[in-house]
Amino acid sequence: MKFNRRGDLGFPEAIMAAMIVTLSLTAYMGLFALNIADDGNISVTSIDHRTFSCLSLADGEIAGDIESRLVSEMERRGLNGISFICEVPGGFGYSSRSVTVGNMDGRIDCERFLFTLKSQDGRIIPAVMEVAVCS
Domains of the chain, with CATH numbers? Predict the structure, then answer.
């Protein structure tokens, strides 16, 4: 940057200096926010959705040995507990299924997602899964 005879910066140099300060403060605040947001806790999205692949629809119920898979997922991830609710919307006549393993006291993260289940007659029906993990 050049100063004129009186020691003043020109207008373009002053605007450039202001933009440099603005950009550096923006980068600093962005990195600060990223470090604050990463608290090291396990979120629901870290649970593999393939855990629920054992579920199927049979005789008006949601069948499958999900309890043992949730227990192994809980032990592998070091969680206090996992709560799972599965519902088939749309009036197909299937009752919902709810499973809770472990202790659900503490910080709870929850996620809802769609998952397709196979029925006995060969249809593939979407189901709403809600998983809550307690860490």
Answer: 1-38 (no CATH), 44-134 (3.30.1140)
